[in-house]
Amino acid sequence: MEDEVILACRRIQMMLYDDLIDEDVVEKKIGNIKSSSNNQNVKAVAKLLSSVLRQCTVEKSEQKHETSLIIESLQPFIFSCVISRIKDIKFEWMTYHLVPPSGHPNNQTMLPDLVLYADPISKMNYELFFVEVKRKGNFANGHLESDIVKLGKEMQIAINKLILRKVKCPEVVGLLVEGYVATAYKMDLKFNGQYRMVEISKFNFTCNSVGDIMLVPTIMEKLYQIQAIISETLQSLYNSFDDIEESEDTTSLLQLLVEVLLQ
User: Fold this and answer.
1) For the chain, which domains are there?
2) pTM for this one?
3) What is the share, in percent, of the chain residues with pLDDT greater than 90?
4) Were both Cys, which of 39, 127, 192, 245 would link to 117 (CB 3.0–4.6 Å)?
C-alpha cells in the first residue's frame, strides 16, 4: 500500500488519540482527507475508517457475544474492500443455506457466516467467497469437525458447481477468522482434478482500538487480493454462459447448412 495511504491512517490515528476532540470534528476532518486527495486508496481508507469510527472509539459491549463483535468488526472491511468493488455480487451474513449440487458426495447443508454469490440464472446460485468465524468451545455447523474442515467443504461445493457450469479455471476463496487473526485460502482444481486448498495470506483483523488503525492498509491490501480472485472467477462464470450461447448458435448454423445442402 502506498505511503500516502499509511500517512492518512497515521493522521486519523493521531486525531483519535486526542481525548479533547469531538467525534463530529474527527468525522469532518476524515471527510476533508477524503475530499482533498486524488488517491483512490486514500479515499477508500478514509471512507472505511469513517464507517468504523464508532468501533475504534467505543469500548466493547459486555452484553455482546465475542463472535458477534468479531463479525461486526469484519463487516465494514468486507463491504468496503470486497463487496462494493464487485458489480452484481450478492451476499448474506449468517442466513445463507449452502445446498450441495445433485450427486455431490456430501449432502450436508452448510451455514457459512458470510457468503458472496452470483445468480446469473435465477434457479442457481454460484458461491465465490466464504467467511467462517471460529467459535470457542464449539464444533462448526453442529458436527464434530473443525472450522477449517467446514470452510473446505463449503469451498469444495462451490468449486463443483462452477465445474458443472463449465467455468474455466475456477477459484473459490475462503477466510477463516480465529480471534482477530484472519487466514485466507483459495481452492482450485489445477492439478489432475485434485482439490487444492492453499493459504494465500494471514493478517491481523481488528479495529477495536485506536492503535489498530495502522493495521488498516495491510488489511485492505489482503482483501483487495481476495476481491481480485473473486472478480476473475465471476468473469469466467459469465463467460461460460456466453460460450454456451455461441456453441448453441454454431450448432444451429451447422444444422441449417446441412439442411440447405441436402435440398
Assistant:
1) 1-51 (no CATH), 62-262 (3.90.1570)
2) 0.82
3) 40
4) 127
